[in-house]
Amino acid sequence: TPDKFAIRVDTRHFAPEEITVKTQDNCVIIHGKHEEKSDDRGCYVKREFTRRYVLPEDVDPHTVKCHLTQGGLLALEAPRKNTKKEPKTIPIDIKHEGKKDGGK
């Protein structure tokens, strides 16, 4: 959106402690790792993902916040810097140049 950067990632198969979110340089890195061993058939399941998103130039990595929704979505948001700046009036210096010889 114009006022914020937002990402939603489906993390339903991961517990909150199995997910990490880091900012590095101008990127957000999301990593999830889940391992489980099924008792009934001795089946072993491992899920792992890494997502890396490059932040837009108008987003400060230190402002990224995230939370998990009840539906298992990881929601990341960061405000965009105000790119609309007020117009700046630039004063004009007027220099009077006269002839050095007295106007002759």
UniProtKB/TrEMBL annotation:
Protein name (Swiss-Prot/TrEMBL): Putative alpha crystallins
Origin: domain of life: Eukaryota
Stated family: Belongs to the small heat shock protein (HSP20) family.
CDD domains reported in the protein's UniProt record: metazoan_ACD (cd06526)
GO terms, molecular function: unfolded protein binding
Domain (SHSP) ranges: 1-95
One GO term (biological process): protein refolding
UniProt keyword annotation of Ribosomal protein present: no
Species of provenance: Amblyomma triste (Neotropical tick)
A Pfam match: HSP20
Claim: Transmembrane helix is one of the keywords in the record: no
Keywords assigned by UniProt, alphabetized: Stress response
Annotated InterPro entries: A-crystallin/Hsp20_dom, Alpha-crystallin/sHSP_animal, HSP20-like_chaperone
GO cellular component: cytoplasm; nucleus
PANTHER family on file: HEAT SHOCK PROTEIN 22-RELATED (PTHR45640:SF13), HEAT SHOCK PROTEIN HSP-12.2-RELATED (PTHR45640)
Location of the region described as Disordered in the Swiss-Prot/TrEMBL record: 79-104
UniProt-listed PROSITE patterns: SHSP
